[in-house]
Amino acid sequence: MLGISLLLTFSYKLVEMCLRITPISKIGKYTVFVWALFILIDVPFFNDNYIFKMPIQYEQALPIFGFLILVYIVSSRFSGYNPIGKYNIVNFIITYPIVEEIIFRGLILPNLEQVFVSSENIQILYMPVTTPVIVSAILFAICHLQYYKLSAQSIRFIINAFLGGILLGAITVMTQSILFALILHIVFNSFSVIFAKRMSENAVRNS
């Protein structure tokens, strides 16, 4: 299970490397879509997943979810993400959150729960932070090295992803569904783009 989790973690890079050796040079531009297709094809092979399940304990989870939306909106102001161009922005807001939530909270997290069956947990906002949640958050954090070269900025992205991964994993375990985590991920990425554009426009006005 841990080996499969690592393969899924670096699946984007693996797909990218495979596409580089294809005779069709332009296909590299669509790596993210080939990656998404590859992950969707893999989903039926995972019997235990949180992808297609409706949330449980939603009455208890809804107030936490509402609070986390506010947290994610505020924290997105300092994310540092700034995708350029409509193609990259759409992928950043929609494609990456969907595929990453399927991988890390939908597939990896429930499979890690089979490895760490009797793991202890702490509570954050009444949500369980188990060993699988922490391990999946670590994998989610280091997966960002696939997209960015190692630098002070990418380290910042990794730290943010780890902290965000803890909350996304905890609410997934609480609800047994990736629905809330997916919405939170999209909200964070959307507002990261909004704040980045505002900062760029203000910089132009002040220059």
Structure description:
There is one protein chain. The longest helix has 30 residues. It is built from eight helices and two strands, in the order αααααββααα. The mean pLDDT is 92. Strands 1-2 form a two-stranded antiparallel ribbon. Helix 3 packs parallel to helix 5, helix 5 runs antiparallel to helix 6 and helix 5 runs antiparallel to helix 8. Strand 1 and strand 2 form a beta hairpin. The protein is mainly alpha-helical.
In a few lines, what is going on in this structure?
69% of the residues lie in helices and 4% in strands.
Keywords:
2 strands; 8 helices; two-stranded antiparallel ribbon; 207 residues; single chain; mainly alpha
Largest sheet properties: 2 strands, antiparallel
Distance between the termini: 53 Å
Structural class computed from helices and strand pairing: mainly alpha
Order of helices and strands: HHHHHEEHHH
Overall morphology: globular
* Spans of at least 5 consecutive residues with low confidence: none
Tally of DSSP β-strands: 2
Average pLDDT for all residues: 92
Please list the strands of the largest sheet in the order they lie side by side. 1-2
Helix content percent band: 55-70%
Indicate the radius of gyration in whole angstroms: 17 Å
Q: Helix count? A: 8
How much of the polypeptide forms β-strand, as a percent range? under 5%
